[in-house]
Amino acid sequence: MTVITTAPTAPPYARTPLSAMEFAERVRAIEENLSRVIKGKPEGIRLLLNALLAGGHTLLEDVPGTGKTTLAKALARSIDGQFKRIQFTPDLLPADVTGSSFYNPKDGSFTFRPGPIFTNVLLADEINRTSPRTQAALLEVMSEGQVTVEGQQRILPLPFLVVATQNPSDYHGTYPLPEAQLDRFAVRITLGYPTLEDEIEILYSQNDRHPIDDLQPVLSTSEVVDLQEQVKSVRVDRAIAEYILRLVDTTRNDTRLRVGISPRGSLTLYRMAQARARMESRDFVTPDDVRALAIAVLAHRLQLDTKSRYGGALPQQIIEDALEKTPVPR
Amino acid sequence: MSSDTIIAREGEDIAMGNSIPKMPWAVTICTFIAAFAFYLTAGFQPLLLVFGAGILASYVSSARLEGATPLRWWVRLALLAVILAFNQTDPSVGEGVGNMRSRNIFAQFYLAEIMVQCWRNRPDDPHRSTLIALTIAGLLFLTASNTFQDEYIRYLTPVFILFFVYGLFRYRNRRSDSRLTLAWQAVAVLTTLVIGFISYRVIYAYKQPLTEFSNRFLMDRFPMMEVGMATQPILGEMFGLRGSAERVLRIENPSGNPHLRGMAFDFYYSGRWGPSFNDRPYRSALQGLAPEGADRILGAETVTITRLVGRNSLLYAPLETAAIDRGDAEDVEWSPDFGGPIRTRFRPPYEYILTIPPQENYQGLLATRLNPEQRKRALQIPERLDPRIAQLAQQITAQAKTPQAKIEAVISYLLANHRYSLYFRRSGGDPLEDFLLTEPKKDAHCEYFASAATILLRCVGVPSRYITGYYAHESAGENQVVVRQRDAHAWSEAWVEGVGWVTVEATPGDGRPDAQDQEIEWWRNLIEKIQDAWKAFTDWLGERTQEQINVTVSVFLLGGVLYGAFIYARKRRAISTIPGFAYSSASAHLAALVARFEAAFTKKGVPFPAHLTYSEHLDNLAKNTPEALQTGNWIDAGRRFIRYYDAARFGGQWDDATRNALETIVQELEQAEKSKPETQAS
């Protein structure tokens, strides 16, 4: 099997690491950029950046019209890299995502035409409006950063980030995402309706033109890779790791669940906590980081059993229970 | 740097698992004091030396028993085996927890366990070993203190308590970083010594009830027998185990005589009666117990006695017994030349049947005729006995001519001049001289009255001997009498020419077991009912055939196995938790600081809940500040503390600056806590 690398941006490992100050400056810059477009949602923005720094994919889930796509686009614009968008429709096919070979009549050969997936930031809009068959095309690329098409592995450029949006799964015309797909998203972010004040500001700010049109990139792709590398050096005390595992373990023993948190889930929580500590200008993780992220990182991975699903239990509630039950390391 | 800091560092190393954990010296010294006290009580035992060396070796060696390995249990088992091998049962010594042997075994095992704790490595909770070792050292010291030779205990106790308290501080490790000046340290040592002396005085003042209490668990004075049934009775301060209401004998169809003899003693020397149970000539009693003609005595009754429990194995019988049918007490032998005892190798429960003639003074089996040698022994007076006792005896019996009159005179003298008390306050010397000659006349228990009567009678030429046994009086249903441990009693027997042996009861009426008894507790009644029911059940079982029993047992076993398998299968499904629910621990010094920090908030009424981080709790407090925190900058100080703490705990920044900063904030909080009432007062 041949391996084809299309990665144009080689990771700049040789560069000197950023200082805490520089790191915070970069994060603040992109944060300001995003908050210009999305008003009154600083937590959502920070979570999105957190996922970006941890090298994780983001699922934005909410009712239509709350700014999911706008946020995703704003992020893509803030990074000076390739940005592509797939509008997931019911008739989309896997080859439309990954790309396919076509016959070149000039020299009689087959040439591979990469799909929209070969990019730095992929906006998978309305991801649950396509069939599970097409959704499954994303499984390999999201977890391994590579695509296998027609027997050939193709490695994607770095950084690679999927920002998907979806309406809640019980809305019309949606296919629920499979568990395997959900587990590949680092966080699920719910934006919610803006407050009255914020919404008034939104109305006036879009009077002439959408502020997203004025956004300028503030980070290069290599800088993003740099930041992501930086995150890995954050210290995680053994007690913190134990805390993460204890939380995860509590869900595995929860009788209301069909499936608890996978090791991928605990791994993601670990990395996300590191990124959050960096964003707070710390070089070590505290239990506060883990607790602040637990719901966003873990809740969407849970599969309730039938009885509790119809009994009105929420995955979020189960994580809250686990946080309540588990003693904090001190 | 003061020595306190060094101590803190040492504790820290243990907590971080960086170096080999070592038992604090205070605990080891504590242990050695206890072991020394035990040596003084129980004499030299090689194992004590071995284990002591083992404890010291743990300071030199770096090998350790790791926390989770099952190896430590094998070590314990091996040590137990060694201890048991070194303390093998002497067949003449009884069994049970009360004797010297088991006390030695306990003490040796305590020391062995402390040694195991010294060698343990417990990274998750290094101070637990310290606490366990301290507790066991305390037990060892208590075991050693259970003695009548209390002269040295009063010097050892304060020292022991001093190191015990110091060891406790090391366990808590709270004060390790507070800087005590030398003067304060001296004051602390002195205070502890004073407390030690005071505790000793208190214990000494309440020695009687304490001894009584501890004797129920560990009675080292009576290594083989039950109370008052010592192999060699010693006139002590207490009448042993008076108060245990355990049933010893059940008598069906009792005779009129309540005195059930166990043993008779001839030699008196300095508060001690002999010869020892084991030093007598015994002979097999296959025929001897049923003399010819005993079955033809007119009006003789048969009395069935069941020995229910007991660590000795005597056959108790009244003086006038004509014959003893051994029943199911096999392998019986007796020592007729010394007036008994009759003993068996059979373990209780067993049953034997007595033939009791109606004549009160029937000279039967136990009242063997006095031959010259026995007469000599029954008149023996210790050489060094104070001559005033003989004078006293002469005075008492000046008017009496016949042996009967002399006996009556002695009894009435004792009853008139002495009162009964379970406790005898010794003032030194031969206890009998102390009892008879000290003015004002002393109170004592039955052992003294019986010994005094025996010796006084001997002084005036009446052969007599000292008897221990039970005083049977408690009716239990129709024609049935129950004898309990607390019915133990002592009396004398005297030889009256022309009549034979007679019972001499010189103890005041209010001192006899029937007058001393208390109500039987309800739970004991219940236990006895259960015991009886069990006995009835086993008797019933004895009548079933082997097949019936086999089938029943198999059915029960099968059911149990199935049930166990079911439980196991359910458990297996449930087991998937992370093993060990303790988080990797912080350094001991940091933990101590945090404990003080938490304590300051707890005192304010806002303790930190286990499921919130410190900052979350402070955020909640900031949002909704309780009244107690409104003065002072508690929340600010708390946040500052947490910033340093997080860096130290999770960021690995455990340097002097962080330490000092944390220390300062904690002190600030503690000061704020203390100064608050003053501001209110002013």
**How many DSSP-defined strands of chain B?**
17
Total helices of chain A: the number is: 14
Q: Roughly how much helix do the residues of chain B carry, as a percent range?
A: 40-55%
Distance between the termini of chain A: 51 Å
Estimate what percentage of residues of chain A fall within beta strands. 15-25%
Biggest β-sheet: strands ordered side by side in the sheet of chain B: 9-12-8-3-15-14
Low-confidence stretches of chain B: 1-18, 91-98, 174-178, 219-227, 574-580, 678-682
The general outline of chain B is elongated
* Multimerization state: heterodimer
Q: What integer is the average pLDDT of chain A?
A: 80
Total number of strands of chain A:
14
Encode the helix/strand succession of chain A as letters. Answer: EHHEHEEHEEEHHEEEHEHEHHEHHEHH
Radius of gyration of chain B: 34 Å
Topology summary:
The complex is a heterodimer of chains A (330) and B (682).
Chain A: E1 3-5, H1 20-37, H2 42-53, E2 57-61, H3 68-78, E3 79-80, E4 83-87, H4 94-98, E5 99-104, E6 109-114, E7 121-125, H5 132-135, H6 137-144, E8 146-149, E9 152-155, E10 161-166, H7 179-183, E11 185-189, H8 196-205, E12 219-220, H9 221-231, H10 238-252, E13 257-259, H11 263-279, H12 287-298, E14 303-304, H13 306-310, H14 315-325
Parallel strand pairs in A: 1-9, 2-10, 2-11, 3-12, 4-7, 7-10
Antiparallel strand pairs in A: 5-6, 8-9, 13-14
Helix pairs in contact in A: 1-2, 1-3, 10-11, 10-14, 11-12, 12-14
Chain B: H1 3-16, H2 25-42, H3 46-60, E1 65-66, H4 71-86, H5 100-118, E2 120-121, H6 127-145, H7 153-172, H8 182-205, H9 207-217, E3 247-252, E4 259-265, E5 267-269, E6 272-274, E7 283-284, E8 301-307, E9 323-325, E10 332-334, E11 342-344, E12 350-356, H10 372-378, H11 387-396, H12 403-417, H13 431-437, H14 446-459, E13 464-471, E14 474-475, E15 480-484, E16 488-496, E17 500-504, H15 513-516, H16 522-542, H17 546-574, H18 588-603, H19 614-623, H20 634-649, H21 656-681
Parallel strand pairs in B: 1-2
Antiparallel strand pairs in B: 3-8, 3-15, 4-13, 5-6, 7-10, 8-12, 9-12, 10-11, 13-16, 14-15, 16-17
Helix pairs in contact in B: 2-3, 2-5, 2-6, 2-7, 3-5, 4-5, 5-6, 6-7, 7-8, 12-14, 18-21, 19-20, 20-21
